[in-house]
């Protein structure tokens, strides 16, 4: 069970700002005293003291339910993670030989579209019918199929490239999914992965959805992992690392024009505007995604 409290979240951001400032040498006396004064002010804000907290357990809403609701808005502008991930991932795709490409957990077809434009023969798989419906609208001539990452409906050695973007956070174990990617890739094939960075889970944890399918607050289970976990899963399968990048949030990632009023009465990212200096110190220039380019050993398969 996780108890999410708006005040608790803001105090956590203040704490992260202090710890990071000390670690990086940017926390001078004025900054530290400002944080302490702001913590006092937050504690004394009646609206925050009485704001509603919620108790929820991770796994009480499924990814299927989340994406069913999100599908119509997923491609709306303003998703910072996508804005930061996309150019890095595209740069890797630009350097790959054109062939047959699988966009695994393709969602609304964001990277499928780019692979198609590069001239690949593309196939898109996703477990969400609602996300696939958006992808089919975008690319009516492309093959999109409902499938789970653990059981890809493709023969062995079927594709030259696998892209799996921002989806592994939903799978509890990396090894079986990467084994599926290795199975469908031809020897020497390329695997390009992006995933939410481990730090995201500390600085912007998943918010409860209210009400969930059962009418109570619920939390999506997400799996954020250290970089060693990707290596531990990929290297025994014959993947070799070609590139790894951890792009960061820009400075001033918090829109300074967003006014703090009204105070959300529940845990929300809008709360960050109640402590913009601390939020910037905690969040700015912190890694938001990890992007991997692996290549399958050219001699490992028969
Ligand atoms: C954040 S979206 C990313 C979509 C797309 N790759 C992109 O980067 O825009 C995550 C996608 O993973 C899909 N997904 C989650 N778990 C899955 C699974 N086990 N098998 C297949 N797709 C899955 C979801 O349905 C969703 O479309």
Automatic annotation (TrEMBL):
The family database entries (InterPro entries) matched by this protein are listed as: Methyltransf_11, Methyltransf_Superfamily, SAM-dependent_MTases_sf
BP GO terms, sorted: methylation
Q: Does the keyword Disulfide bond feature in the UniProt annotation?
A: no
Judging by the UniProt lineage, the source's domain of life is Bacteria
Keyword vocabulary terms for this entry: Methyltransferase, Transferase
Q: What is this protein called?
A: Class I SAM-dependent methyltransferase
As one GO molecular function, the record gives: S-adenosylmethionine-dependent methyltransferase activity
Annotated Methyltransferase type domain ranges read: 102-193
